[in-house]
């Protein structure tokens, strides 16, 4: 149940970053485009290093003084431990506490550098892996914090789907060949009985 | 009325039996020790149910009078005579006179920690015991002792870990410049200077109960200091020394999501300017409300091996935390988030175990022979920790135990030692801003 909840919120958090804001506090006087790539994304094994590259490009027309970006939420799906590395000035790991906890990356490139000039792109490189706790498919999003407004909200976030290769799709045993043959046999048997009954009923009805 | 009388007689009899062995006498609903002039409470009235406006977790309260004359002398010991508990003698850890009828006193015993704070006309106390959490507030209706029990997450809470409502908001204004540290004296100070910011809603809520806001903020940090003191291995220097350099209300409204608040603390000219002005190593922001009731606080965690900034100059802009003033899951949300900033983690079962700054930087909980459980400040209320799984004012340390009414060793060697990671990085944290050697408490009265 807990893991189901985790996956629901992970999915929800994708929309949380990508959807338009309901209230506005921060204004970015420019169009900032966010992109993210991950390599590899498919057939991943826990512990296998994934290279993430997140970029933020100022498409103009004004320099951007504050640019806060945030990742989707995670608990223990990522291994940030030994082997992990980054080249990402301005990134921090935020823990949220309440009934339950979760983590998010917050990347504010303007915190560790000058304003983002028009035409400039800042890169964030992160290398870490999935853990055994990661689901078969894990969407991971980076985007401008939701209540900040820029001139074009359509490119404010980017999502990659990370798919494990070591989890075989769950097969329902009822659909195995043996069970299918058994089901077919039962249906045939029931059909024959039905036919016989109808045949008997028809005979009886004939005067 | 008859029911109350019966209740009174029953409790008095029970207390009488319980206290006979401890050499105390029972008076009314309170316990008066055999040396009453050293008691914290000079008198304790009838217990009542806290009203609906009480802080989360409040379950029972007693009108009390405080032995102020004795406390004013900043004594070596104070007898903690809480109702329904055997009196415990607290030994002084810190004390300070703040002028006439004003003082700070903190101390601890085998089972309890207590911070006692007075200014003229207002006495406050935070009391953490292995089997209960209490506070004392002086409000318009008098001085009251309140017992708190924090509940389990409600059924189905798994699904509100975070939802689409968990949307971060942005800082109040854009266009800020990057924070810069103040050029201060070049001495290597060891005190961690803390700035506490709070919203107008916090002030209004406190003032509505006639609580002095500045005293409240000073007490909040002094309670955290008491946690540091109580988490220190006996005979060793205190793991961290804290100093409230300033406390101030900010313009930011008490709305929006906590993620937006940390972005605000890092980028907005108002908090950044105040932090620089006061050369604060750590900034904590206290709110009265939360847009998502399932969240009580947020803070950055340093380290994570090579992936994120470790404690040091690179982490300084991230040494910020946001917390609700009161939380229905914990009596110490401020101390919890404060611990994170040093690299303290939750208990292993409730932590991403690949991220610790140190492999032993975890919180701890334990059970007492299947009777009850307890947890340290950064631990979660694990489902295996027997309810109420009381939270004590300790960061995990295997060398520190509470022994009354049962033995709770607050950590495990090389496994659950948040106090150790706080001690390890306290000095580094104290260098986030060059100290201006200001002491807030000198002036707030």
Short key terms for the protein model shown above:
heterodimer, A: 207 residues, alpha+beta, Immunoglobulin-like, five-stranded antiparallel β-sheet, 36% strand, B: 445 residues, 8 helices, 20% helix, globular
> Helicity range of the residues of chain B?
10-25%
Largest two-chain interface: A-B, 68 and 65 residues
Q: Strand share of the residues of chain A?
A: 35-45%
Distance between the termini of chain A: 63 Å
The overall number of domains of chain A is 2
Number of helices of chain B: 8
Structural class of chain B: alpha+beta
How much is the average pLDDT of chain A? 80
Weakly predicted, low-confidence segments of chain A: 1-24, 201-207
In total, how many beta strands of chain B? 21
Q: Kindly state the mean pLDDT of chain B as a whole number?
A: 84
Give the CA-based shape of chain B: globular
Low-confidence spans of chain B: pLDDT under 50, at least 5 residues?
11-27, 153-185
What does this structure look like?
- The complex is a heterodimer of chains A (207) and B (445).
- By secondary structure, chain A is of the alpha+beta class.
- Chain A has two domains: 2-163, Immunoglobulin-like (Sandwich), CATH 2.60.40.10; 172-205.
- Chain A is 22% helix and 36% strand.
- In chain A, strands 2, 3, 5, 6 and 9 form a five-stranded antiparallel beta sheet that branches.
- The termini of chain A are far apart.
- Chain B is globular, with a radius of gyration of 21 Å.
- In chain B, strand 8 and strand 9 (122-129) form a beta hairpin.
- The model of chain B is unreliable at 11-27 and 153-185 (pLDDT under 50).
- Chain B has helices spanning 2-20, 68-72, 200-208, 213-230, 258-267, 269-278, 333-340, 418-429; strands spanning 25-27, 30-32, 41-44, 58-66, 77-80, 88-97, 103-108, 112-119, 122-129, 132-139, 142-148, 191-198, 241-249, 282-287, 295-301, 320-324, 365-368, 372-375, 390-391, 401-402, 408-409.
- Chain B is of the alpha+beta class.
- The chains are: A alpha+beta (207), B alpha+beta (445).
- The interface between A and B is large, with 68 and 65 residues.
């Amino acid at each position: 149940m807990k893991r189901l909840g985790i996956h629901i919120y992970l999915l929800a958090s994708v929309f949380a970053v990508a959807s338009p804001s309901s209230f506005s506090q921060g204004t970015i006087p420019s169009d900032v485009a966010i992109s993210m790539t991950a390599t590899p994304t498919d057939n991943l094994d826990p512990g296998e290093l994934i290279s993430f590259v997140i970029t933020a490009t100022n498409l103009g027309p004004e320099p951007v003084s504050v640019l806060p970006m945030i990742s989707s939420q995670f608990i223990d799906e990522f291994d940030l431990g030994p082997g992990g590395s980054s080249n990402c000035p301005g990134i921090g790991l935020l823990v949220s506490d309440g009934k339950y906890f979760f983590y998010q990356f917050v990347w504010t490139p303007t915190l560790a550098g000058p304003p983002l000039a028009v035409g400039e792109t800042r890169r964030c490189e992160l290398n870490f892996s999935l853990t055994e706790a990661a689901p078969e498919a894990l969407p991971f999003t980076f985007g401008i914090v939701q209540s900040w407004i820029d001139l074009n909200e359509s490119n404010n976030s980017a999502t990659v789907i990370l798919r494990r290769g070591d989890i075989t799709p769950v097969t329902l045993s009822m659909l195995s060949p043996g069970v299918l043959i058994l089901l077919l046999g039962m249906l045939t048997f029931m059909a024959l009985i039905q036919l016989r009954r109808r045949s008997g009923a028809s005979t009886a009805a004939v005067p | 009325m008859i029911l109350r009388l019966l209740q009174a007689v029953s409790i008095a009899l029970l207390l009488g039996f319980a206290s006979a062995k401890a050499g105390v006498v029972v008076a009314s609903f309170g316990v008066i020790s055999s040396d009453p002039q050293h008691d914290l409470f000079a008198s304790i009235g009838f217990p009542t149910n806290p009203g609906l406006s009480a802080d989360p977790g409040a379950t029972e309260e007693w009108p009390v009078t405080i032995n102020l004359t004795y406390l004013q002398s900043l004594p070596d010991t104070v007898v903690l005579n809480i109702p329904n508990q055997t009196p415990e003698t607290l030994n002084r850890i810190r004390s300070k006179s703040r002028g006439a009828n004003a003082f700070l006193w903190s101390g601890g015993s085998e089972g309890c920690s207590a911070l006692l704070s007075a200014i003229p006309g207002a006495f406050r106390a935070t009391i953490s015991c292995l089997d209960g959490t209490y506070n004392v507030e002086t409000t318009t209706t008098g001085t009251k002792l309140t017992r708190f029990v924090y509940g389990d997450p409600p059924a189905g809470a798994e699904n509100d870990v975070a939802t689409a409502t968990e949307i971060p908001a942005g800082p109040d204004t854009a266009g800020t410049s990057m924070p810069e540290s103040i050029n201060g004296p070049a001495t290597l100070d060891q005190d961690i200077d803390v700035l506490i910011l709070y919203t107008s809603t916090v002030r209004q809520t406190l003032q509505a109960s006639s609580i002095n806001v500045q005293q409240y903020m000073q007490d909040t940090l002094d309670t955290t200091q008491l946690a540091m003191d109580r988490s220190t291995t006996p005979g060793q220097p205190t793991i961290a020394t804290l100093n409230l350099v300033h406390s101030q209300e900010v313009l930011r409204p008490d709305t929006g999501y906590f993620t937006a608040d940390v972005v605000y603390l890092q980028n907005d000219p108002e908090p950044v300017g105040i932090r620089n002005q006061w050369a604060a190593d750590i900034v904590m922001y206290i709110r009265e409300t939360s847009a998502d009731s399932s969240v009580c606080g947020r803070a950055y965690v340093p380290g994570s091996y090579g992936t994120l900034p470790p404690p040091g100059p690179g982490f300084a802009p991230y040494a910020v935390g946001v917390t609700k003033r009161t939380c229905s899951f914990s009596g110490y949300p401020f101390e919890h988030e404060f611990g994170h900033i040093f690299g303290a983690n939750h208990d292993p079962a409730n932590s991403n175990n690949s991220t610790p700054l140190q492999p032993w930087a975890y919180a701890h909980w334990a059970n007492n022979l299947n009777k009850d459980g307890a947890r340290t400040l950064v631990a979660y209320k694990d489902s295996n920790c027997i309810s109420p799984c009381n939270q004590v004012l300790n960061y995990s340390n295997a060398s520190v135990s509470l022994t009354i009414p049962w033995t709770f060793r607050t950590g495990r060697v090389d496994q659950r030692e948040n106090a150790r990671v706080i001690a390890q990085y306290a000095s580094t944290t104290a260098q986030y801003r060059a100290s201006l050697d200001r002491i807030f408490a000198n002036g707030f009265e």
